[in-house]
Amino acid sequence: MDHKAGYVNIIGKPNAGKSTLMNALLGERLSIVTPKAQTTRHRILGIYNDDNHQVIFSDSPGIIEPSYKLQEKMMEQVQESLTDADVFLLVLDATDPNALTLGGDAFLSIISQMQKTDVPVVVAINKIDNLSQDAVQVYGTKVRALFPKAEILAISALHQFNTFELFQTILSLLPEHEPYFDKEDLSDRNLRFFASEIIREKIFENYSQEIPYSTHVTIQSFKEEPNISRIDAEIWVEKESQKAIIIGKNGKALKKTGTQARLALEKFLNQKVFLSLNVKVKPDWRKNESLLNKILI
Ligand SMILES: Nc1nc2c(ncn2[C@@H]2O[C@H](COP(=O)(O)OP(=O)(O)OP(=O)(O)O)[C@@H](O)[C@H]2O)c(=O)[nH]1
Ligand SMILES: [Mg+2]
Description:
The chain is an alpha/beta fold. It has 2 domains: 4-173, Rossmann fold; 191-295, K homology (KH) domain (GMP Synthetase, Chain A, domain 3, 2-Layer Sandwich), CATH 3.30.300. The protein has 9 helices and 9 strands. It has helices spanning 18-26, 69-83, 104-116, 133-146, 163-173, 191-206, 240-247, 252-269, 289-295, and strands at 4-12, 44-49, 53-59, 87-93, 121-126, 151-154, 216-224, 228-237, 272-281. Strands 2-3-1-4-5-6 form a 6-stranded mixed β-sheet, with helices on both faces. A 3-stranded mixed β-sheet has the order 7-8-9. A hairpin with a 3-residue loop joins strand 7 (216-224) and strand 8 (228-237). Helix 6 packs across helix 8 (252-269). The longest helix is centred in the C-terminal third of the chain and has 18 residues, at 252-269. It is globular, with a radius of gyration of 20 Å. It starts with a strand and ends with a helix. The model has no long low-confidence stretch (mean pLDDT 95).
């Protein structure tokens, strides 16, 4: 058999550039990206197919010490990606002085698992567009000391520098295997999921402090008509005061977010979109186990 296939599980701290990198490797904007940490909440598979390869990239939330139930569930999504990897792709933000050292036991324990595993490890030293060559060199030496057997590449996911080389390295490490998914599949997630993520991305971009973290987006209905998709979405918040902030004075803030989300959805779906957004208060949804079990699957 000369077909190769496998799971390439991307892990790292929040904001390291994991989602940017998955999108760059796939050439598709599947995972949402924002400047804020803890943007990604779910494990998301992005699938690359050609005649001889199926690369299943797995994006996941950044590793943190969970301090509430939603974060615990996010870390369960990370744990899952530690179990089925054919290749680990560890993403480090080279501009973060604490990228390798501090960051709590959760991250250190994952680093130590990576050091012991028989699964091939690729380390992507990311954001080198913001670093001098000397600094990259120094950083590379530190990473080499931690991972003597790993493939180590200095990249910029944002500017797609060295990402082709990274992709070739990954291909060379994949095992021979039949495809796991249909060759037409791009992801394990459906359009409703991506629609909710795109709306969440615009919330992350438009609101500050705790607001984005206190929201969740559900799609109430998604109707595909020949020339337009009609999407009804609900934005959950935890308190009335947050609802007021999301809506803004005279509805201005929600209108702006809604317009940006609609335009992004139109680009993603390649079709006109009618988007209706409703804000609903769901007290303490981030601590509600049964709600979270429905949301984080
Ligand atoms: N300068 C620079 N910025 C980058 C690079 N890669 C990602 N970023 C930026 O870093 C920020 C975080 O990127 P994400 O891809 O959302 O990071 P993530 O690791 O998925 O973050 P979480 O989902 O929160 O864990 C965004 O503002 C990106 O544009 C890079 O190579 N260079
Ligand atoms: Mg992400």
